[in-house]
Design a protein that fits this description.
Elements lengths: L2 E3 L10 H7 L2 H13 L19 H5 L14 H23 L2 E2 H27 L4 E2 L1 H13 L5 H13 L14 H10 L4 H7 L5 H4 L2 H8 L1 H21 L3 H24 L20 H6 L6 H6 L17 H11 L3 E2 L2 E3 L1 H11 L6 H5 L2 H19 L1 H13 L3 E2 L5 E2 L1
Parallel strand pairs: 1-5, 2-6
Antiparallel strand pairs: 3-4, 6-7
Helix pairs in contact: 4-13, 4-20, 5-6, 5-7, 5-13, 6-12, 12-13
Bound molecules: zinc ion (2 copies).
One zinc ion (ZN) binds next to helix 5 and helix 7.
Pfam families: FA_desaturase (PF00487)
Membrane topology: Multi-pass membrane protein
Cofactor: Fe(2+)
């Protein structure tokens, strides 16, 4: 059973956005009650004022800009790195369509993209950023290795930025501020130097639990060599050594294409899931529930729910057999074998109370009356769509190869027509 978090006050249950938007002392105190029952990462910030419309002085005085940004504001190392990776990813996709690819390589890329996705969703997000469950040391090490393979920044930098995103959403203290536009929220934040507010308020984000964690500390210290080995060298060499894949094919598919696709799938949670979709849990906040984003992000697309209940280990009101959520299934399996424990989840009463006050109760009318058999059937169909959407590069490459009359290679170097 998951740990149920009940509010101490049942008449009015504050949510993250309510406390941030009202700034009322009484509400903030009630929020503190709930917060203590979850984790004290300061989800309920009420005291700061950040002018979201204020432009940086540098932009106001700049004579020459690129898409509105001065040369000095752009993080050129990231622009060059990401540009090269995107070119290689596109080339890798075309290369795979018109050249023989080992069948095991396609199976391996499905496995490694899922595994590294878990590193971010289960590890970087649900475990280290939000502490929605507790993990034993072997699981922490596995998640840190998988998180490194995604090439999405160290656990420490990702978690600090993500806590700031929850604490001051859609302000200039939010490192991925959707108020700066869709592209900035998606990946523009990686191409620009941080605004002064992001750095200033980033220091106020509690990170003691992270800096005192030796796995997080050393992963951050050794991040570049670890990324080179785990993100690029290992995924390239394993197919070459294990089933004699061509080294260029292995590098392009298992390293370049895989990292770029997984990152874009995860980035859509910051971009699309802050602009498009339903807001049934809290209609006053920007984050949304978006089915397609949930499919491609392996269960991270229930973003309206997540910003309302960020301490829920499932990132969704529903569990993994009711909705496509491989990350929740992963955590439940880890719990079953003793690697994860203290899984946190708000009670149904808490969820319903919040929906009643801030959400759209009518949105859930049909869902609440479904029996378990129907819920599981809908969940099964959702998993089929989820797997199809999440792994689109692999099966589209296979289809294009069939259309073009190309061939896959099997183990003994005979061709699979
Ligand atoms: Zn968000
Ligand atoms: Zn989050």
């Amino acid at each position: 059973m998951s740990e149920s978090i009940e509010p101490k006050t049942t008449d009015k249950i504050p949510t993250e956005s309510e406390c941030e938007t009202t700034g009322e002392e009484s509400v903030a105190l009630k929020a503190k009650d709930v917060e203590e029952l979850a984790l004290d990462f300061g989800y309920y910030e009420t005291t700061i004022e950040i002018d979201s419309n204020k432009e940086e002085p540098a932009i106001q005085t700049a004579k020459f800009t690129i898409f509105g940004y001065r040369f000095a504001q752009i993080k050129w190392s990231n622009v060059i790195f990401l540009s090269v990776m995107h070119v290689l990813a596109v080339y890798g996709y075309i290369h795979s369509c018109v050249n023989p690819v080992h069948l095991f390589t396609l199976i391996f890329v499905i496995f490694i993209s899922s595994a590294s996705g878990f590193g971010m969703s289960v590890g970087g997000h649900r475990y280290w950023s939000h502490r929605t469950f507790k993990a034993r040391l072997p699981l922490q090490i596995i998640l840190a290795v998988l998180q490194t393979m995604t090439v999405n920044g160290s656990i420490l930098s990702y978690s600090r930025d993500h806590r700031a995103h929850h604490k001051w959403p859609a302000t200039h203290a939010d490192p991925k501020n959707p108020g700066r536009g869709f592209f900035f929220a998606h990946m523009g934040w990686w191409l620009l130097k941080k605004r002064p507010e992001v750095i200033q308020y980033g220091h106020k984000v509690p990170t003691d639990d992270l800096t005192k964690d030796p796995i997080v500390y050393y992963q951050h210290k050794l991040y570049i060599p670890l990324v080179i080995v785990l993100g690029y060298v290992f995924p390239t060499l394993l197919p070459v050594l294990a089933w004699k894949e061509n080294i260029l094919t292995a590098f392009l598919i298992c390293s370049c294409l895989r990292t770029v696709v997984v990152l874009h799938h995860l980035f859509t949670v910051n971009s699309v899931a802050h602009f498009l979709g339903d807001r049934p849990y809290d209609r006053f906040m920007k984050p949304t529930e978006n089915k397609i984003i949930n499919w491609i992000s392996m269960g991270e697309g229930n973003h309206n729910y997540h910003h309302t209940f960020p301490w829920d280990y499932s990132n969704s009101e529903k569990t993994w057999y009711e909705i496509f959520n491989p990350a929740t299934l992963f955590i439940d399996i880890c719990k079953g074998i003793g690697l994860a424990y203290d899984l946190k989840k708000p009670s149904q009463h808490t969820i319903d109370s919040v929906i009643e006050r801030k959400g759209l109760p009518e949105y859930f009318a049909s869902d609440r009356t479904r029996n378990m058999c129907l819920k599981i059937t809908i969940g099964f169909i959702d998993w089929i769509f989820g797997l199809l959407f999440a792994k689109w590069p692999v099966w589209t490459i296979a289809i294009i190869k069939i259309i073009l009359g190309q061939r896959l290679i099997v183990l003994d170097n005979t061709f699979l027509e």
